[in-house]
Design brief:
The chain has about 375 residues and is an alpha/beta fold. It contains eleven helices and 14 strands. A seven-stranded mixed sheet has the order 1-9-8-5-4-2-3, sandwiched between helices. Strands 7-6-12 form a three-stranded antiparallel sheet, with no helix packed on it. A two-stranded antiparallel ribbon has the order 10-11. The model has no long low-confidence stretch (mean pLDDT about 95). Pyridoxal-5'-phosphate binds next to helix 3.
Length: about 375
């Protein structure tokens, strides 16, 4: 690939944290100063305010702030009592943190294939994977598109099993008008700096409408404490700190506006790519997609990525190796060919930059280069 094909234009990164920081710098610095002046570093007013604001945002009864999205999943699984001998239905087309905490608790992940339209777990295959040992279904709202919850509720109710939402990529998304975070027994969110709602470091949240789970989650995140020196259960240190809590609060005030900008950019891409061999993501009319990632599919993914890279446009693949093919998951008995839709997706997906700070000019440039690459692959195919 010849250098300089971006004609001296600035490269477009996959994420631009500095641009966002510039916009909210004064507010963030004031919030940090307020926390440091108080020297209340944990379990203080910022954590409580964030929990209240976030519960309201998700229309959930409780929000329990924790140290990361992984903590949120681990504590949720633990609060549900998942452990040795229990089977939990999960997609394989997800980040490994959906699955690893189950393994740490001794539970057995049972991988189920995806619906290629939404990249989320396919409810018809969930039904077929249920056994007398199944204790829960994990619905991952991957890329920001909610899973097909109605069928999942139906199956879960029929079999008396729990539903966990992995909403780490989907803050602000809605399913039939209801926000994610209020659609299952409990939901896990991540505020790591790469997600739509971000801390400047690690942070996460669990939301739930169940009082019993909320109480256990509050204990589990802080050494099983019921008072300073009294421990009602074993727990861990999965607390959020006040600095991260206050930063997430600042970001929450801008989240809706930023989500709308993501949706606007996504709409422009989708209109431009229709009818080419670069397949845009679909958005069911039952949902509000929040485009944490804008993921296209192409049988020519390698060529497309190479072209964009050569002209200075960063891309990603989320995720190139499905969980069931990762080394530590081999013991669960899945292998190449077990989940055809998942494996096909892993070979065809490409994530384009979609953050709110992208300028209209940058969006135009990305569209132009994707279409140019589509023409290139078309020529390559007809020559073949
Ligand atoms: C980011 C993410 C997690 C883990 O969140 P962390 O805050 O990084 O621990 C879990 N599941 C999914 C789907 C994610 O995207």
């Amino acid at each position: 690939m010849s250098p300089g094909r971006n004609n001296g234009r600035e490269p477009i990164p996959f994420l631009d944290l500095k641009a966002e920081y510039r916009e909210q710098k004064a507010e963030v610095l004031a919030a940090i100063e307020r926390v440091l002046d108080s020297m209340q570093l944990y379990d203080g007013p910022e954590t409580r305010a964030l929990e209240e604001e976030f519960a309201r945002y998700c229309c959930a009864r409780h929000a329990i702030a924790v140290g990361s999205g992984t903590d949120a999943l681990l504590l949720t699984y633990a609060a549900l009592g998942l452990g040795a001998g229990d089977e939990v239905i999960v997609p394989s087309h997800t980040f490994i943190a959906t699955v690893a905490p189950l393994a740490f608790l001794g539970a057995t992940p049972v991988f189920v294939d995806i619906d290629p339209q939404t990249f989320a777990i396919d409810p018809e295959r969930v039904e077929a994977a249920i056994t007398p040992r199944t204790k829960a279904i994990v619905a991952v709202h991957l890329y920001g598109h909610p899973a097909d919850m109605a069928r999942i509720w139906e199956i879960a109710a029929q079999h008396g099993i729990a539903v966990v939402e992995d909403a780490c990529q989907a803050v602000g998304a809605r399913y039939r008008g209801r926000p994610v975070g209020s659609l299952g027994d409990a939901a896990a969110f991540s505020f790591v700096f790469t997600k739509n709602l971000r801390a400047y470091g690690d942070a996460g949240m669990v939301t739930t409408n169940r009082d019993d789970l909320a109480e256990q989650l509050r204990r589990l995140r802080d050494h099983g404490r019921v008072s300073k020196y009294e421990h009602a259960a074993f727990g861990l240190n999965c607390r959020i700190d006040e600095l991260q809590a206050t930063i997430v609060r600042v970001a929450l005030r801008r989240l809706e506006e930023r989500t709308e900008r993501r949706r606007h950019i996504a709409r422009r891409y989708t209109e431009a790519f229709r009818g080419t061999d670069v397949l845009p993501p679909s958005e069911s009319d039952q949902v509000r997609h929040v485009y944490h990632l804008y993921v296209v599919r192409s049988r020519w993914r390698g060529e497309l990525a190479a072209h964009l890279n050569a002209v200075g446009i960063a891309t990603g693949v989320h995720y190139p190796i499905p969980c069931h093919l990762q080394e530590p998951c081999r013991k669960y008995g899945f292998g190449a060919g077990s989940l055809p839709e998942t494996e096909r997706a892993a070979g065809e997906i490409l994530s384009l930059p979609v953050y709110p700070e992208l300028t209209d000019e940058q969006v135009d440039r990305i569209i132009g280069e994707v279409l140019a690459a589509a023409d290139v692959t078309l020529t390559a195919r007809s020559a073949a």
